[in-house]
Amino acid sequence: MIRTEQRDSITRVILDRPERRNAITRPMIDGLNTQIGEALSDRGCRGVVITGASGHFSAGRDLSGSTQATDLPGYLERDDAWTNIFKQLAGASKPTVAVVEGYAVAGGFTLAMACDFVLAHQQAKFGALEMRNQFPAAINTPLLGKIASPRIGLELAMTGSIFSAERLYSAGLINHLAESTTALTALADDFTSHLAGLDPDAVVMTKELHRAATTMPLNNSLDMGKLANALLAASGRIGEAEARYSKK
């Protein structure tokens, strides 16, 4: 099941199926789509945390129900729902944070990597395990191609290996590591509290500019930055900042 908690303007979306290491069923896919969508459209929400219950993030999609689709339209409809989770996260105007303990593998690895930030226990394990079953990690591979260096991204996607949190941290795919569950909880609380305290309009503009920088030629994204500065000046934001600093 998928459950949510509200804490200090942050929505926590929790994968809660501990008997299967939070393996994701079709109803859970629908729940993720709904809960992430509602959080991102909620004006009072300043950020979204995705995490797992009972010491694991997620063992990935539960393939035991995959036979429910029997024809191409059925398979496309099933995977459209799965892919839409990542489209929502990719286009999110609010910051998204994965908090990872235990295993984040296969689709669970994809879900963690799709978030803006990843906070992880030092003993957490990650991996695109689909290759062990003789099929590619078809959603995670293009995602890794965007966020990892080409050689690292291809290794993660192709080998089917388990990778340590330390390895992913050194590759720039994890933001912060924690030595214990207690430390991870404190880290997540501090990190998300800081995000919640940021100006929401500035957060939206930063995310849009950062997204542009990863998809546009540099000159075009610099032009977006120039227009953003002009908009901020015209709105009075820059003048207000100058006045504050002059009083210090």
Give a short summary of the structure.
It contains ten helices and nine strands. The protein has helices at about 25-40, 70-90, 105-115, 140-145, 150-160, 165-170, 180-195, 200-215, 220-235, 235-245, and strands at about 1-5, 10-15, 45-50, 95-100, 105, 115-120, 125, 165, 175-180.
Tags for this model:
248 residues; alpha/beta; 6-stranded mixed beta sheet; 3-stranded mixed beta sheet; 10 helices; 16% strand
Helix content: 40-55%
The main pleated sheet reads as: 6 strands, mixed
Rg:
19 Å
Order of helices and strands: EEHEHEEHEEHHEHEHHHH
Strand content: 15-25%
Mean pLDDT across every amino acid position: 93
What is the subunit arrangement here? single chain
CA-based shape? globular
Strand order of the largest sheet: 1-2-3-4-6-9
Total beta strands = 9
Distance between the termini: 51 Å
Q: Treating each run of at least 4 consecutive H or I residues as one helix, how many helices?
A: 10
Low-confidence segments: none
